Recover the amino acids of this structure.
């Protein structure tokens, strides 16, 4: 039995500080859970001169030295971003050190290669904190749902966008809400990664591998962020019985697996509609278990630290007992990723049109040409500029038809502008 497990921590930002604090303040609880004493042996920070609330001895500005130190048994990577994080993880694994990371970017782009390296070296690479912050998600998807064929997965996995959209639903501007999310520490170092759905795309990629066995990279997903959304659309959506979310969707169809991230209207009665603020949720439908939802705080230091430490306890326990690491599981046949043009959804359009006879006839002719059925319509009387506002809710149609219809609606003589096209999800 190993008496202690010595930890090397790379990165003391928002999450790193919370992890370091918990390792010190909760030493007894964590050590009891691990069955061995957990010692924060070394830590690497970007700037040694920066004042910190935390007195961590053996601080260095050289993360590579920590990743390869002889007196470190387990490496926690919380540097974030692609490089040097990927190289640091790889060098720790090369030296047969298990790694715990929260790094969604590295896992999305290099996860399979790093997992293969870890397996070759007989050590673990764990990443519970990479998706959904403090929500136990990776382990349940890997182990607890193993008997299922996952049919559908819909997720709110960017806390910043969910926080922003929640505030926009009360009429706040996107820029103001985003500034608050940054102050609260939810946003990425570059908040464009949040609003442009880069972060959610990385996380969906990780979930796709686990739940659907698809070995994709984020470049293969359809990604659309929340920029350009107007609080008016959130208000119209509510009138129609929907709430707007940035949704990551993976869905098995006969033609292949859909993989997409974009703003989407969710019916008010669906559990995802009630997930607000920085909360995340992943709604999974398995063929045996039916619908299951995992939800909780998806961002923030303490919540993410909780997931990092769960992995640390797991790895430390195995190290303490000297248990071997099981070989990686075999994936089934690689599913086909469905091109976005073939994905079928319902759709919401908002148009600014001239207030004159025959406008609706023109609109419905375009929709009919593309075999798009109309489910609901809202029309507002013209404002002082003489334009009327029309909101259309369609039945399900292929993306290619909806996109072409949007172009043709924009070209109608009576259309001043297509102000919004937002997909509508109709989950089980
Ligand atoms: N920027 C991320 C979010 C942090 O807002 O969800 C957690 O991954």
């Amino acid at each position: 039995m190993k008496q202690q497990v010595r930890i090397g921590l790379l990165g003391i930002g928002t999450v790193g500080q919370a992890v370091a604090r918990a390792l010190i303040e909760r030493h007894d609880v964590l050590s009891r859970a691990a069955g061995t004493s957990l010692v924060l042996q070394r830590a690497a920070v970007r700037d040694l001169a920066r004042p910190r609330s935390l007195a961590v001895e053996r601080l260095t500005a050289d993360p590579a030295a920590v990743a390869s130190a002889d007196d470190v048994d387990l490496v926690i990577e919380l540097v974030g971003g692609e490089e040097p994080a990927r190289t640091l993880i790889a060098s720790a694994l090369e030296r047969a050190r298990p790694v715990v990371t929260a790094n969604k970017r590295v896992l999305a782009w290099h996860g399979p290669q790093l997992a293969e390296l870890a397996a070759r070296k007989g050590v673990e690479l764990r990443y519970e904190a990479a998706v959904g912050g403090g929500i136990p998600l990776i382990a349940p998807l890997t182990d607890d749902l193993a008997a299922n064929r996952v049919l559908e997965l819909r997720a709110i996995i960017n806390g910043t966008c969910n926080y922003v959209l929640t505030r926009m639903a009360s009429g706040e501007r996107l820029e103001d809400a985003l500034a608050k999310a940054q102050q609260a520490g939810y946003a990425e170092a570059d908040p464009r990664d949040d609003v442009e759905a880069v972060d959610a795309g990385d996380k969906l990629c990780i979930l796709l591998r686990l739940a659907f066995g698809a070995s994709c990279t984020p470049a293969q997903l359809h990604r659309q962020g929340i920029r350009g959304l107007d609080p008016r659309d959130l208000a119209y959506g509510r009138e129609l019985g929907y709430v707007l979310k940035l949704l990551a969707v993976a869905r098995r169809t006969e033609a292949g697996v859909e993989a997409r991230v974009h703003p989407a209207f969710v019916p008010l009665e669906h559990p995802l509609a009630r997930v607000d603020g920085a909360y995340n949720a992943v709604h999974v439908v398995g063929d045996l278990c039916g619908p299951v939802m995992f939800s909780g705080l998806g961002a923030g230091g303490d919540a993410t630290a909780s997931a990092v430490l769960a992995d640390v306890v797991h790895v430390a326990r195995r190290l303490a007992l000297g248990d071997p690491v099981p070989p990686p599981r075999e994936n089934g046949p690689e599913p086909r990723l469905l091109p976005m043009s073939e994905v079928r959804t319902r759709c919401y359009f908002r148009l600014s049109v001239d207030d004159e006879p025959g406008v609706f006839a023109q609109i419905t002719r375009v929709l009919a040409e593309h075999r798009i059925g109309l489910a609901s319509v809202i029309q507002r009387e013209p404002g002082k500029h003489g334009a009327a506002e029309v909101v259309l809710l369609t039945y399900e149609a292929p993306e290619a038809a909806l996109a072409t219809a949007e172009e043709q609606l924009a070209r109608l003589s009576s259309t001043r502008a297509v102000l919004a096209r937002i997909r509508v999800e109709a989950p089980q």
User: Anything to note?
Assistant: The two ends are 49 Å apart (CA to CA). The longest helix spans residues 301-321. Residues 4-132+301-321 form a domain with the Rossmann fold fold (CATH 3.40.50.720).
